[in-house]
Write a structure and sequence with these properties.
By secondary structure, the protein is an alpha/beta fold. It is built from twelve helices and seven strands. It is 40% helix and 17% strand. The structure holds magnesium ion.
Length: 292
């Protein structure tokens, strides 16, 4: 079945893209009184010494602490209100949506959707204010036993993140749907040229690459308040030397910021192209009435 293909989608990474912190730092680690400066290196040890995947390493380390193992997914969700965001989040979601509240876009039902794909924990994001503004959140998940988090149920590594871009592309948001099923371009819910990916660093490279290869839009953000400039350096490398993204900008989502100007310009251009092509196809399909 052909899709109307009237949706533009922005997909955001979370840690250091929408928030200046790792989501675990101010939530689970603070609850368990663990210092992020020792917790994260202990995860790196597992990766280096035992060959763990990054996400399995942090989930295993968390389960080693009684104060964390005793939590439920609902407890993680209720920590979502402790998250901190970059300036302009979450207001930017609704503000960007208003761009399409114009008759020329409404005539063709053109609208914007937001998604988050993270290697952090979905439960925490589900309890955050961001959840009210996005169509779907994808992230790592713990199973539960007797009301306590137990084994990792799902992990999303940085390479697996691309699977979720295909899910948005094909409209297969339900995780029991097989994203590898063949689907012709005209049946896809959000074609890649109507997708934008916003991320912050090397872990977003597979997503940036997928976007660039398929005529989507790749945008890297950095923390302008990071005095070490590490955040800026990561972005600079991606943009200048690796040619992975179309633009880089400070992670400031407020109206009038560099990032907002780029995002608004791009999605407006995409929407105008969609309007033009729909008008042309309406014109092309019109059959003149016979002359009297
Ligand atoms: Mg990130």
């Amino acid at each position: 079945m052909n899709q109307p293909q009237n949706i533009i989608a922005i997909i955001y990474d979370f840690d250091h893209t929408l928030s200046p912190h790792y989501m675990q730092d101010h939530t689970i680690l603070r609850h368990a009184e663990l210092d992020p400066a020792t917790f994260w290196p202990s995860c790196t040890d597992l990766i280096k010494e035992k060959g763990y995947d990054q996400e399995l390493a942090y989930m295993k380390r968390m389960l080693e602490y009684d104060q964390i193992r005793s939590l439920s997914n609902q407890d993680l969700k209720s920590m979502g209100n402790l998250l901190e965001f970059f300036k302009g989040v979450p207001e930017c979601f609704g503000e960007l949506n208003t761009i399409f509240k114009k008759p020329k876009y409404e005539e063709f039902g053109i609208r914007l959707e937001h998604y988050v794909v993270s290697s952090g924990l979905k439960a925490i994001l589900d309890g955050s204010v961001v959840a009210n503004h996005v169509k779907a959140i994808f992230g790592c998940e713990f199973d539960e036993e007797n009301g306590h988090i137990s084994f990792p149920k799902r992990t999303i590594s940085h390479t697996q993140k691309t699977q979720f871009l295909f899910r948005v592309n094909k409209g297969l948001l339900n995780l029991d749907q097989d994203v590898n099923d063949h689907m012709p371009e005209e049946s896809r819910r959000v074609p890649f040229p109507q997708m934008v990916y916003v991320g912050d660093g090397p872990t977003d490279v597979p997503c940036f690459t997928l976007m660039k290869k398929n005529d989507g839009f790749a945008l890297a953000v950095y923390n302008p308040e990071d005095q070490t400039r590490r955040s800026f350096e990561k972005c600079y490398q991606l943009t200048r030397h690796a040619n992975r993204v179309h633009f880089m900008a400070p992670a400031d989502y407020r109206p009038g910021s560099h990032l907002r100007l780029i995002l608004e310009k791009h999605i407006t251009e995409v929407a105008d192209r969609m309007v033009d092509s729909r008008r042309q196809s309406v014109e092309g399909s019109r059959v003149p009435a016979p002359l009297p």
